[in-house]
Amino acid sequence: MYSDKVMDHFANPRNSGEIENASGEGTVGNPTCGDLMTIYIDVDDDEVIQDIKFKTFGCGAAIATSSMITEIAKGMAVDEALKITRNDVADALDGLPPIKMHCSNLAADALAEAIKDYKEKQEE
Amino acid sequence: MYMDNSATSPVKEEVFNAMVPYLKEEFGNPSAFYSLGRSAKKAVETARENVAKLINAETREIIFTSGGTESDNMAIKGIAFKLEDKGKHIITTVIEHPAVLRTCEYLETKGFEVTYLPVKENGILDIEDLKEAIRDDTILISVMHANNEIGTIQPIEEVGGIAKEKGITFHVDAVQSVGKIPVDVKKANIDLLSISSHKLYGPKGVGALFIRKGVRIETLIHGGGQENNLRSGTENVPGIVGFGKAAEIAYNNLDANIEKLQEIRDLLIGEVLDKVPEAYLNGDREERLPNNASFRFAAIEGEGLILRLDAKGINGATGSACSSKNLKASYVLSALGLEDAEIHGSLRLSLGVENSIEDVEVVSDAIADVVGSLRQMSPLWDNEKNESLELDESKFTDVDH
């Protein structure tokens, strides 16, 4: 059902936890599907994501996608990170079962929300 | 450590050994008149006696099928089509197995009306609801004996008494209960009862339907007339022999198994609720199968729990939406009045006779460890206070998916 990469990221999630006083924070999900993700980012003066962490309530795929996106986005400029799609995350995990593509692959949306939050804070 | 016996149970060694000759040298067709056929026929009839004995039925009242799903279909459609001139109303409950629910839904497309009775918080139907639902055109009441997810046992003797008094045919899906607790079709006034072999250490692909003598059903599978003209098709002789052996073993060990399983189950429930904060038991505390422990844990999701327990060598099940084929949370747990978020963190452990008291500490420690690690990652858990958090919806974006 799950690829070895999904199982690896589920069993050994990278960058789980939270960042206190994060530059940006985004939470997405849907209680009906049972997945809820929060992504925290720390952005430096060059608008590069220096640190990124996640907290996820969800299935194996949800935890794996959260973990994977932190690996992809770490070190990226925020505008570049905004271009990461759900498909990019799924591809990086060697695919997800079709039924899991939508509800459990929200990590890119959570990151986008975190970047949006960062940008809003910058404007304040 | 296998704790998913409500899904299926391993074939016992004695059962396997009993089957082998009927896969090899005793391969005759029971319909054949020569000795090889007669030998197979005799083995099928011995199995029928053993299955009948387990539920206090007469041998001729047992029809072999391919399993619980076919038995449920045969009973419900068989009665519906036989009695449709008398009435087209059926009563069942919202927590039945899909084999019953989907069959009832199919009959609704054929002009039947079905009343789906709710259950109380403990998963047990309200007898008053049943009495109120009965109409002049009610032809069938179908109530499961024990629920597959929460193990809750329904008051089938009471239901049977009411059905008998009103002259309504009574079907019981006893797939989860036969072989685990006493089942007496006479005492409970049951007209039809479904059994599955692989839930009681027999092989898969075989089951039985008890049809009380005198109860007539419409035949669904036509052909050579096997199984009293009710279920044509060459008998699955090795499967039936294995099923019969499993039934015999279950009958001989019923009391001892109940005592053993209840002891393990009660200890397991106590340990898990003690070791894991915000852990709850689903279903009724007393009226439950001796082998069922159904939990829910705040702030975590069941599929992750199952996968991490599997990594520790422990097999259980969940009613979480994420592990289902349609991303819908368990309808059984919903029927208890639980919210989706509560249902997501469910875990069903169904014990088997091979489990031991020693397993309890290992399993409860593993659950505590895994739940703790998932909560560490959960945005719904406060790790400092070690308690669940209310979701702050102002920080939450429900995205289109």
TrEMBL record, chain A:
This is NifU-like FeS cluster assembly scaffold protein. Residues 1-123 form the NIF system FeS cluster assembly NifU N-terminal domain. One of its GO terms (biological process) is iron-sulfur cluster assembly. SUPFAM superfamilies: SufE/NifU (SSF82649). One of its GO terms (molecular function) is iron ion binding. It comes from the Archaea. Pfam families: NifU_N. The lineage of its organism: Archaea, Methanobacteriati, Methanobacteriota, Methanomada group, Methanobacteria. It comes from Methanobrevibacter ruminantium (strain ATCC 35063 / DSM 1093 / JCM 13430 / OCM 146 / M1) (Methanobacterium ruminantium).
